[in-house]
Structure formats: C-alpha cells, structure tokens
C-alpha cells in the first residue's frame, strides 16, 4: 500500500513543539486535513447493439487523454435491451447486475452515462461539460486500492484504504472491469464489427450490487479487505479494480488499480 494515506493521516495528528517553551495544554495543535483532488467516475451505459455507442467510447477516450485516465475513470455497463447476452455463437457483455444499474438509472436511451452520479444521466455530448465541472472540485475523502491475485486459485484480494478529509457518511463500492475484450459491436454505419475491442467493461461487483456502508470521521483512516474469484473466461492481466465511495450527494471519490501490475520496477538509486 502506498504511503499517501498514511502521510495524510499524519497531517491531522498533533504537532509537538519544545516542552521548554510551551505549556502542557498548548503542545498539541490540531491540523485540519489538506484538500483532496477529486477524480470523476463516468458510468457509460452501453450495448453491443447500440450503433452510436462506439462514438461515445471515442468521447471517453478524448476525456481521458485530456484529463488523464486516473482522473476520469470510465466503466462500461452493458445493460438493457441493446446489450447482448453470451451464447454459443456470440460473446455477450451483458450482466444481470448491469441490467439492474441500467434500470436504476431510469433505463435511458443509449448511449448515456452518469457522471459522478450527479444530475441524473447525460447524453455523450454532455459528458465534457459534466466532467469539467466536477473535476474542478475537491473531495471530502481520499481512497486507494491494492490487489493481490493468486493465479492457481484465481482468487483476488482487494485491500481498500480511505482517509476522511471531512466527515464521510456513505457506501463503498468495489467493481471489477476488463479491457481489451474482442466482441461484436454494431457500428454507426449499421455494420457488425466482430473484431471490435471493448474497454473498461463492467464484470462484477465485489461487495454486492450497491456496496457496503462506509463511514469516516474527519482525519480517520479506515481499511477493508474483500475477495472475489475471477471467472475462467476473464483475463486478469487486462483487469482492474474500480473502488469508489458514494452517498446521496454523488460519488465522493474513485480510484482504479490493476489486478496485476505489469509495469517494470524502477531500479533503486
């Protein structure tokens, strides 16, 4: 686990000065946590029979290029009548949980998305403005996730730590997503592209459909550990965990972490 949350925790501990010059009651001074930069969760409701959804995927790519993939975290949720179930001939990306999220969002016309779960659903041409407005804001919480994957058993352990820059009352949600899935997609010209590459595809909710209660006091650090078994048809090397904290005011913070870190280690100085 990184040291960022620990450092922030230390920042809200008490500052101690010389005992020779300061009285007993004046040695400990509370330091309010520093502001936390907000990352944005973009829930992209999509389907393999949606001819305009590839264009929406291009919008997401542009947003991530502009702001960074760590700052705009997209999840493609295949649900509703334009999503496709797997069968013996077709690889479908529809899930029962995705259908539930789609229905909860009001069963919008595709493509559509929720941006930080603020302001309902947006059409893809509205995502730029919604992301811009939210990414300018600060957050009341910082969050990190770390993964440990056992190849033989295909069991994943996710450790999530969060730091409350302010008091937080909400829920913690942990999702699994997968990149690089080659599967059929209807294109804007009406053709079926069997070689289309789907990215950031929602696979499963690790800690139930709507997550779990997760509350923090100001300055508090809290950690949880959850496990999941990776389906045999999924490719762990292409997968990531998306963890976020949300409440009635929207998604307060989100982070994304690869299941398997394929980046080479930096040589020691």
Brief summary:
With 269 residues, the chain is an alpha+beta fold. The chain is built from four helices and 20 strands. Strands 11, 16, 17, 19 and 20 form a five-stranded antiparallel beta sheet that branches. The chain has a four-stranded mixed beta sheet with strand order 5-4-6-7.
Characterization of the model:
The C terminus is likely disordered. This protein has a single domain, classed as Immunoglobulin-like (Sandwich). Strands 11, 16, 17, 19 and 20 form a 5-stranded antiparallel beta sheet that branches. A hairpin with a 4-residue loop joins strand 9 and strand 10. With 269 residues, the chain is an alpha+beta fold. The chain is 15% helix and 39% strand. The chain is built from 4 helices and 20 strands. Keywords: Lipoprotein. It comes from Palleniella muris. This is Omp28 family outer membrane lipoprotein.
